[in-house]
Specification:
Layout (H helix, E strand, L loop, with lengths): L6 H11 L2 H4 L11 H6 L9 E4 L16 H11 L8 E2 L2 E2 L6 H14 L4 E5 L7 H17 L3 E5 L13 E4 L2 E4 L3 H4 L3
Parallel strand pairs: 1-4, 4-5
Antiparallel strand pairs: 2-3, 6-7
Helix pairs in contact: 4-5
Amino acid sequence: KADGLTEGGVVDFFMALLPSRIRHPEPTGSRRATPLSLFQHSPGHPRQLFSTVFAEVHLFDRLYGMPAGAEAEVNQWLAELGIADVTHVVDGRFTRLGLSTGQRKRVALAVALAEHRPVLLLDEWAADQDPESRRYFYTVLLPRLRAEGRTIIAISHDDRYFDIADRLFRLEDGQLSELHPRAERIGA
């Protein structure tokens, strides 16, 4: 139980945010994912559906529970995120962890992306990034991940990029409300 919500309630909330192609079952024999099929094929626990990067990020000195080949993929993401010259993975371990908050978040994002989980939860990821990294995150990376079919839940106060979101929610005084759909926000 966390802040009055049961774990099932939190999962239900996140499942409600998933695109309709995932939420609504397809006809029998379809290979499309549904909530039930996601949970049935998720190893161990529904948490295995989510990769997360929290605002208060902690890095381990090595990769844990990653599939074969993950080291190379993490290093590719580190390069794409502009941090490979500062740290990278060798023999399953990071070469350096004494990093700034923004750098630690880039490392954590590289690991989360290499996990290939269907839902990526990012808590204020861009808040500690330099302007160029922030712009790249919102205008290049998030649209690319969306096009790849990933569901991204990005918690942000950066209203300059709200138009990128498919759905926009506001949490105020403990109340969650959805703001206007994207088409209305961008004048389509």
